[in-house]
Structure formats: structure tokens, C-alpha cells
Amino acid sequence: MYAGFNCTAQSILSKRENGDYLGVAIGWGLAITFAVQMGFNISGSHCNCSVSFFLFTLGELPFLHFIYYSLAQFAGGFLGSALTFLQYYDQINAFDGGIRAVYGPTATASIFATYPHDNLSFTGAFIDQTMCTAFLAIIIGTVSDPKNKIPRPAQPPLFGAMICLLTIGYGFNAGNAMNPARDLAPRLFTFCVGYGIEVFSHFNYAWPIIPVFCPLIGGFTGAWIYRIFLGANIDPLIPEIDNNNNEITLTKASNIENPTKIWSSKLSPPSNFIVDFSKNNNIPSVMP
Q1: Domain identity same for 213 and 278
Q2: pLDDT band for position 249 (50/70/90)?
Q3: pLDDT of residue 189
Q4: Neighbour count for residue 104 (Cβ, 10 Å)
Q5: Residues 6+ apart with CB under 8 A from 19
Q6: End-to-end Cα spacing for the chain
Q7: In terms of domains, do 252 and 223 share one?
Q8: Are residues 175 and 277 located together in one domain of the fold?
Q9: What's the pLDDT at 250?
């Protein structure tokens, strides 16, 4: 988030001279690419509360892990805001004259948190944020589902491209938070450093509900849309054994004669896969 906030700060404080909206979108995309890559082989790079939440609802993340990850994500959002504020402190003072503003020509609060467009209604904001995060969840499902055979090294850049796309296509209405930690933690930070209660004041102080709860609803909806309408219709992958080379390869179920015979007792499945046997047909589906 720190790198993304810096992209936004440079654009706002330079009055778009050192970065227009497209530059901000690309910057956030690159920030997500490197953030995902850094933790990809450790935790899977849980950077987003809505993603952790829908993985929990899918049964792929224990509840305690969801809590731990969410706390870490909020801490990261707060710390990232603090680092950007520290780095651009002099420029912020020069821009707003030392008077922290949420509205108006010298407003800098939007460097950190998202705010709705003047023409956006509460209902419109609810729809916007929910749909945006649902699309994010569908793309994540598409990229990360091993049945789609997208190589792991290619996934972080694709997630970055996803953020770039969503920022360009969905950012106009309300800044497409898509992540409670990306919005609420920075909003609390701005409240603490002098922006005041106005950071919560949109829609009669109901605005913070939108970027906190709508991403959870949208992520849940999008994840289940992918699982039911897309993922369930892709041929399951079957680990295929080569005893001579002591290797396991993944093959589509339709490509082998007897998909229930997966591996010998001498071999175990790769540690980064969970094999779930279907009660209906005993054909396993492999999930990350």
C-alpha cells in the first residue's frame, strides 16, 4: 500500500504534472505485482481482507488465519499511510498550507483513503463497490485456479494487471477501495494526524460503511460466481504418477482412463495442493 499511496500522492501534490490518472493506475498495478510476489511462496500474499474473507467462506482458509491476516492487513494499511505521510510531509504542507483538508482545491485526504464523487448516491456507491470487488474475485479465481494451468510465476503480474484494469475502469465513482484494510486503516490514520472527523462525514457519516462492508459482500459474491458458473465447469486436474522418475504431473480427468488411481503409496501429492475427493463421482478436484 505504501508504494500505491506514493503514486497517488505524487499525482495529487504535483497537480497531475508528475503522474496522471493512468500513471496512478499503472503504479498501483505494479505495487500489487511486487507485493504479491514478495509473499507468494510464504502465505500466498494475503493483502486484501475481502480476498481472505471469501477464501474463508469457501472453506480454504481457517477462521483464525482470516483474523490474523486481517489484523496484519489493517496494520499494513496504517503503517503504509504513515510512511507516505512522512515522506511527503513537506510537499503536503506546501500544497495545503498546513491546513489538512478533506474537501476543496487543497484537499489531500484522498491520497490515503477513498471518497465518493459528488454525483454519486449512497445506493450508487453500494452497487459500485460491490460490483467492483465481485469482478476482482472472479479474476482472482480465474488466475489462481490450477485447473486453468496459469503458471505461478505469471500470476503476480496478472494480479497487477487486474488492479490496473479495475482502477482505470472502476475508479471514477469512488476510488474502488476493494479492500477494507486499504480504506479504513488509512482513514483512521488521517483522522489521527489532523484531518478531523470530516474523513467520516460523507453521506451523513455513513460513507465508511461502503468501502468496509461492500468489498466483503462483493468478494463473497464474485468468488461463488466463479466457483459455481466457471470453476465447476472446468475439467478437474488429476495428479499422474511416473514411478520411474518419481514425479507427479497434473492431467485433466478426461485425458486418463481411470482417474481414481492417482498415486502409489510411495509418493505423496505436492505440498502446495489439497486433493478433495468428490462424493458424487470420486474424481478429485485439486485446489490451491
Answers
A1: no
A2: low
A3: 98
A4: 8
A5: 7, 10, 11, 27
A6: 25
A7: no
A8: no
A9: 59
Do 190 and 260 fall into the same domain?
Answer: no
Strand partners, 285: 276
Instruction: Give the pLDDT of residue 269.
Output: 44
| Cβ(154)–Cβ(241) below 8 Å | no
Q: Which domain holds residue 180?
A: 2-232
Residues 214 and 282 in one domain: no
Residues 153, 37 share a domain: yes
Considering the domain architecture, whether residues 142 and 241 belong to the same structural domain is answered as no
- 69, 52 contact by CB (below 8 A): yes
DSSP state of 121: -
According to DSSP, residue 277 is labeled E
What is the rounded distance in angstroms from the CA atom of residue 233 to the CA atom of residue 247?
27
Cα–Cα distance measured from residue 76 to residue 60, given in angstroms and rounded to the nearest whole number = 23
Q: What is the mean pLDDT of the chain?
A: 86
Tens-place pLDDT, residues 22-76: 999 999 999 999 999 999 888 888 999 999 999 999 999 999 999 999 999 999 9
Query: Strands 284-287 and 274-277: what pairing?
Result: antiparallel
pTM of the model: 0.82
Sign of CA dihedral 11, 84, 78, 36: positive
| φ, ψ dihedrals at 247, nearest 5° | -125, 150
Query: In the chain, which residue ranges form alpha helices assigned H by DSSP?
Result: 2-13, 21-39, 49-57, 63-87, 89-96, 122-144, 155-174, 180-190, 202-205, 209-225
Per-residue pLDDT band for 260 (boundaries 50, 70, 90) equals very low
How confident is residue 262, by pLDDT bands cut at 50, 70 and 90?
A: very low
**Based on the domain organization, do 268 and 217 belong to the same domain?**
no
